[in-house]
Amino acid sequence: xxxxxxxxxxxxxxxxxxxxxxxxxxxxxxxxxxxxxxxxxxxxxxxxxxxxxxxxxxxxxxxxxxxxxxxxxxxxxxxxxxxxxxxxxxxxxxxxxxxxxxxxxxxxxxxxxxxxxxxxxxxxxxxxx
Length: 129
Hints:
The chain is an alpha+beta fold.
């Protein structure tokens, strides 16, 4: 149950949209596999993926539809990640898996439909894909 709370705390940090708070959940060996965009390692690599969208977001909301912690401590989430931009709301419908050690997210895998998500973005938005 402890790992589930770490993930919920991470989502709260994402909603505050402050880089330092978000990255406090990762260390240099943390891995983010943002399927289908690819794998990055370490807090700086993770921010290279998250930063472009977080930098232009006016607000961020993580709507958790389902969350469970497995017997081995993996946390599974079904959620909608909602980013309010200047002129629109962009929603990512996501299935995510988190592996936590202590208070650190060591491995994060998100699965989502890239085309569905990109079709909502402004055409001039540069994302690291």
